[in-house]
TrEMBL record:
GO terms for molecular function: ATP binding; tryptophan-tRNA ligase activity. It comes from Triparma strigata. It is an enzyme of class 6 (ligase). It is found in: Mitochondrion. Its main location: mitochondrion. Coiled coil: none annotated. Its EC number is 6.1.1.2. The chain holds residues 66 to 411 of 411 of the full protein. Keywords: Aminoacyl-tRNA synthetase, ATP-binding, Ligase, Nucleotide-binding, Protein biosynthesis, Signal. The keyword Disulfide bond does not apply. The lineage of its organism: Eukaryota, Sar, Stramenopiles, Ochrophyta, Bolidophyceae. Belongs to the class-I aminoacyl-tRNA synthetase family. The keyword Ligase applies. One of its GO terms (cellular component) is mitochondrion. This is tryptophan--tRNA ligase.
Length: 346
């Protein structure tokens, strides 16, 4: 079976973009692939939390994210669910990869360029730059070949491929590697597999409710811009009511109408083929229909979420077992990497 790995940062509430762009793909992949889903808590520090905003809720957000994975249909008896920081090889491999990763490969990442463009001096942490090396480590540690993500992660996946290829070429080719692997009794070339991004057709780029030209994002300061997976029906109704609109009657696709396009695609997905014809509706008619559709779509997930959180010790048990399973593979990979790089092994 091919391996799959994906993850979400527990930076705040997970939102509809995270769900439609990535998490909702995961349960369907469990049959065909050998899946690992990771709560990438180390990544949530990359925005350099200056105060306790991130850190005070990091633990709770990590548990919430893991529970959302399960509530979405990820089955812990089939897939491995774990927390990134529990498996120390993520940080270790990230360092090993960074040392053979040209700086300019990181500097050309769109997300890095976008986030630094508006930041003041001293506001950007080193982690924001090196973040894709950690993401590459997450994927390469487990030999994942398929990585279900939203559109905004495409470039990071391409970088991961480049990193994998470069590492294999530099350290795992030719005579010395063959000889060393023989010595240690491990299968030789290649150490890393080159992963590919699996990006859904609809939902790969859900936009903000307050500006249809920006993606829905956890870091948006306007809480009305995001529908969170765990928002109550009342909050969802109110956020959709407040969503930005235009003056045109009828909800239909038009390249010059980013808000209409976005809300219509959310409606298409959440109504699951059972939607009404909204092409002649006014915004006032459409919005309550959309709100009901989103509320109904999230309802089963929210119900299961409560069950998962209420079962004493269950989630903690899943994460403990997940850590143990992940560690076995992660250790083996780092060992191979270290052999390639010439380390004296313990
Ligand atoms: P993160 O936490 O920002 O987002 C998690 C997943 O949600 C997708 N996503 C979206 N999809 C559609 N519309 C949106 N508005 C939207 N916003 C976010 C993201 O593409 C992502 O798939 N670096 C990653 C996390 C990560 C990871 C990994 C992913 C770390 N290591 C290894 C896969 C494999 C991130 O920050 O995602």
């Amino acid at each position: 079976k091919k391996r799959v790995l994906s993850g979400v940062q527990p930076t705040g509430s997970l939102h509809l973009g995270n769900y439609l762009g990535s998490i909702s793909q995961w349960p369907k992949m469990q049959e065909e692939y050998d899946c690992s889903f990771c709560v990438v808590d180390l990544h949530s520090l990359t925005n350099m939390p200056k105060n306790t905003e991130v850190t005070k809720s990091l633990k709770e957000n990590t548990l919430t994210a893991a529970a959302i994975y399960i509530a979405s249909g990820v089955d812990p008896s089939t897939s491995n669910i774990f927390v990134q920081s529990h498996v120390k090889q993520h940080a270790e491999l990230s360092w090993l990869l960074s040392c053979s990763l040209p700086l300019n490969w990181l500097e050309r990442m769109i997300q890095y360029k976008d986030k630094t463009a508006t930041a003041k001096e001293g506001e950007v942490g080193t982690g924001l730059l090196t973040y894709p090396a950690l993401m590459a480590a997450d994927i390469l540690l487990y030999g994942a070949e398929v990585v279900p993500v939203g559109e905004d992660q495409r470039q990071h996946l391409e970088l991961t491929r480049d990193i994998a290829r470069r590492f294999n070429d530099l350290y795992c080719k030719g005579g010395p590697w063959k000889k060393k692997t023989k010595e240690y009794g491990i299968p030789s070339y290649p150490v890393f597999r080159e992963p590919t991004a699996q990006i859904v057709k609809g939902g790969a780029r859900i936009m903000s409710l307050s500006d249809g030209r920006n993606k829905m994002s956890k870091s948006d300061p306007n809480p009305n811009s995001c529908i969170n997976i765990l928002d109550s029906p009342d909050v969802i109704v109110q956020k959709i009511k407040a969503a930005k609109t235009d003056d045109i009657v009828g909800i239909f696709e038009d390249t010059s109408r980013p808000e209409a396009n976005n809300l219509m695609s959310i409606y298409d997905i959440t109504s699951q083929g059972d939607g009404e014809d909204v092409s002649n509706m006014s915004w006032g008619e459409f919005k309550p229909i959309l709100a009901t559709s989103v509320v109904e779509y999230l309802k089963p997930l929210q119900k299961r979420y409560e069950e998962v959180r209420n079962e004493e010790g269950y989630l903690e048990g899943v994460l403990k077992e997940g850590k143990e399973n992940a560690s076995v593979i992660a250790e083996e990979t780092v060992r191979k990497v270290k052999i390639g790089m010439g380390f004296y092994l313990d």
